[in-house]
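S.,

As promised, the zinc ion run. Input:
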Amino acid sequence: MSKKLLISDLIDEAKCYEQLRELKWGNRIECKECGSYEVRKNGHDQGIKHRQRYVCKNCNKSFTDITDTVFASNHVPIQKWVVCWLLKDNMSNKEMAKALDLPPKIVSDMRSELGNGVIKSNFIDNWDW
Ligand SMILES: [Zn+2]
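Predicted complex:
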């Protein structure tokens, strides 16, 4: 039997990360540790094709697209976070949990996290998805 198709399966992972990078950095990737823009790409996160890894040439700190964002608070794919964000005013935790195939407690935690903004350091509390 095939796996049930979830609404989050219809969301494009690459576009989610593209949007996140734009929101987080604009056109220049900055090392949050030392403020340097001398950053090089360092492959992708294991199993997550579009999540870029970076290393700072100045202080040698490693980070990824989701470092210092709400998406780092659990292992839920970014597509599910986006659905949770988009439908947060239209669905109960229970409905959302069913739609995303997640435990209701996780959905409840994600909602609280999203209420505090997507990017932790910048206090950005919204994004245009
Ligand atoms: Zn640095």
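The two ends are 33 Å apart (CA to CA). DSSP finds four helices and three strands in the chain.

- D.
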